[in-house]
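Write out the 3D structure for:
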Amino acid sequence: MAISSINFQKAKSHSKAHNFREDYVSYLLEEKYQKQNEYCEFFPDRKKVFQSELSKAKRKGGRIPKFENSNWEAVVNLNEEHNIVNLRIVAHMLEHLLNIICTDIALHRDEGYVQKNGKVKYNYHAHLNFITYKDGRQNWRKEHIKPKTLSKIQTMVARYLHMERGKIKSKAIRLEHKQYKYFAQKLEEQKAALKPENDNQEILLKIKTRHLKEKENEILELNKKLKEKEEEYQLLLKKLKEKEEQKTVLPQNQDELIFLRKFYTKITNTELNLDLCSDVDYIAQMAIDGIIELERFKSTMRGDKEQERSINTTKNNPTMREKLK
C-alpha cells in the first residue's frame, strides 16, 4: 500500500497531451499489463482560463503575469481502489484552500514495472492541473504558501484518500517515472540477492524449532513417567508401613522418598529456556537419572527382602542350623 503524498510542480508545455496520453509515452507497461486510465476535464483550454482571470483583474501596473508561472500540477500517490471521484474531492478541497482553479485531472494505471517473478508492480498516481492566478493575484507564491500550509495539505489529502500520511518534515522527494522504475528494479535485485541467505536462515530456524519441540516432548514424557514412578513408590511405601518386619528399612525409605520429592519438585519447577538446547538436554538427563535412582532403590529393597527371607528360613531349618555350626 502506497503512502499518501502530494507534490506540486510547474506544468510543462506538453503536460496535458502527456497526461491524457495523446503523446507517445515510451516507459509505459506492456499493453497486456496496462489498466484503464481515467480522465476529467473541467476546462479544455488552460490558457483561456488564465487569460479570463487576467482580463478580470484590476491591475495597477507592474509586470504582467505569465501563463507559464500560473500553470501548475500536483502529482498525487494513489492505491488501486482510488478513482476519479476521490480526486475531484481533493481538487475541490485545494481550490477552496488555496484559491486556485482546477482545469483537468488524469489518473494513471498504466505505469510501473514487471518483477522477476512475473508480478506487476503498479505505480498508481494522478496529475491534477491548476491555474494559480485568480482574483487578480498569483496565489502560489512563497509569501502565500507557508510550510505550515503545505503540511496541512499533506494531512488533508491523506485523510480524504484514507491513506497513511507520510512522515512530517520528511526529506523524501517524489521520483520521476524513470527514476521510480530504476530504483524499484534495483530494490528488487537487492531483495533477490538476499533471498538465498534468508532461505538458509529460515531452514536453520525450522530445524532448530523442530529439535526443540522434540526435546520438549521428551521432557513431558519423562515427567509423566516420573509421576508414575512416584505413585508406585508411594504405594510401595504404604505396604512397607503395613508390615512390621520391614520397620528397620523404613527410615532409609523415608530418606529416599525425601530425595525423590526434592528431585521431582526441582524438575517440575525448572523454567525451560527452549532457545537453548543445552538447557533442554540438562533437564532431560535429570529426569532420566531420577528414574534410574528409583529403580535402584526398588531393586535394593527387593534384595533386602529376599536376604531377610533367606535368614528366617535358615533359622527355622534344624538341618541348616547344624551345617552352620
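Residues 203-324 form one domain.
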